[in-house]
Amino acid sequence: MSRSEELFDRAKAVLPGGVNSPVRAFRAVGGTPFFVDRARGACLTDVDGKTYLDYAAERGWTYGAPCAAEVELAEVVRRRMPTIEMVRFVNSGTEATMAAVRVARAATRRDVILKFEGCYHGHADSFLVKAGSGVATLGLPDSPGVPGALAELTLTVPFNDSAAVQEVFTRRGKDIAAVIVEPYVGNAGFIAPEPGFHEALRALCDRHGALLIFDEVMTGFRVAPGGAQQRLGVRADLTTLGKIIGGGLPVGAYGGRADLMRLVAPEGPVYQAGTLSGNPVAMAAGLATLRETERPGFYDVLERRTGRLVAGIGDAARRQGVAATGGHAGSMWGVYLTAGPVRSFAQAKRADAGLFARWHRAALARGVFLAPSAFEAGFVSSAHTDADIDFTIAQLDAALGEARAR
Asked: How many CB atoms lie within 10 A of CB 350?
């Protein structure tokens, strides 16, 4: 058996059809796809040492053909997130959520998607209804440019409101293909789930034959080694991931139960493709990143430093006489300049955006770069040291005093 054949067999266990773009499976022409090892000039060389005339540069940024790193990264993702039995790599979080919803609609033969106010799942038409992220930051109206008929297929309810979800399922359960949720909301600041909320979503989806999609573009491998699903102990049918699995490079992924992912072309009828999907640079960066997070104590240190940062900002707010509430999970955190708690997007919007803007400018002048929005989560990195946390707390304390004085 050649190395390419061995890799293809491994790939078929973790990637739909063994590839990240359908035509690469060679089904239209027969045979086994070759896996690229390197590229130079006008030549590609496969993992078995055979060279082909092509058009490439140096080791190569993208091949339009499979590479071993795709298989290796898929195996790491599956090991870290067991609910992802198979995975397809794409180029962004938006692509991942679009494709996950397409799979859910195909699997259930239903059209309606249920999402939550303030949650942002990318800029696809279906998701720009009561969305967070830049939509919330800029105060944009719901769904400009999105056909009304399409927007009607997206239902929204408040995050953390299990009763509202149950009411919608009572009325429209037979129409709902999937519930999509940020398990910890990060595109409206940072909103943690109430105890039992995600368990209620799981139960309602099971009862009504809908799928549960966890959008872990933000939370995946940040809030725990196995993402929010591990931290919360809740099983998702489909999961979406973002740039962390590419070391910050443009990459995303969607995956889940094997029976659902086998619906994806070339194994099944649900079409989704991408020329740059599974490109060797992003795959190598993703492998390096996830391996770094497997160092002993990695997540314990992140959790401790993030908790210390949030507590320090809270202390600063009290010293400055500013109402504030914050929280964190793993390396993900957020602070609202309002009296807490904040458990929904409606409550988040009570935050003092004007004061935040002044605080942001004062912090920037002091050398601390906060996200330029009152409605975006922050993240502590493994590159941040304890000294960095001390510096940040001190500067944000002083900056908050300056912002309040103005």
From this structure: 14
Contact 26, 32 (CB under 8 A): yes
Burial class (CB in 10 A: 0-12, 13-18, 19+), 405: exposed
For CA atoms 123, 118, 177, 224, give the dihedral sign: positive
Residue 147 CB burial class (10 angstroms; 0-12, 13-18, ≥19)? exposed
Choosing from 37, 46, 63, 120, the catalytic residue is 120
Q: Is residue 131 predicted with pLDDT exceeding 80?
A: no
Q: According to the model, what pLDDT value does residue 347 have?
A: 96
Token pair in block for residue 25: 């499976």
pLDDT at 386 (0 to 100): 96
Dist CA 10 CA 68 (whole Å): 10
For the chain, the average pLDDT equals 91
Identify the active-site residue in 37, 161, 215, 352.
215
Position of tokens 């314990």? 300
Cα–Cα nearest to 176, from 236, 276, 104: 104
Q: Which of 145, 163, 161, 205 is nearest to 180 (CA)?
A: 205
Query: Which pLDDT score, from 0 to 100, does residue 256 have?
Result: 98
Catalytic residue among 243, 254, 336, 352: 243
pLDDT tens digits for range 347-378: 999 999 999 999 999 999 999 999 888 889 99
pLDDT of residue 241 exceeding 80:
yes
- Contact assessment for residue 324 and residue 401, using Cβ atoms and an 8 Å cutoff: no
Token pair in block for residue 308: 């210390």
CA nearest neighbour of 72 among 94, 51, 87: 87
Could you give the C-alpha distances from 163 to 168, 233, 236, 400, in angstroms and in order? 9, 21, 20, 38
Active site residue 254: no
- 240: phi then psi, degrees, rounded to nearest 5: -115, 145
pLDDT digits (tens, 9 = 90+) for 19-61: 988 888 988 888 899 999 988 777 788 999 998 867 554 456 6
Beta-ladder partners of 335: 326
CB atoms within 10 A of CB 205: 22
Is pLDDT of 138 > 60?
A: no
Alpha-carbon distance values, 372 to 138, 265, 324, 359, 364 (Å)? 11, 40, 18, 10, 10
Please report how the helices 386-405 and 298-320 are oriented relative to each other, as an axis angle in degrees rounded to 10.
Answer: 20
Q: Is 161 a catalytic residue?
A: no
Q: Is residue 271 annotated as a catalytic residue, yes or no?
A: no
Q: How far is CA 168 from CA 107, 211, 214, in A?
A: 21, 15, 19
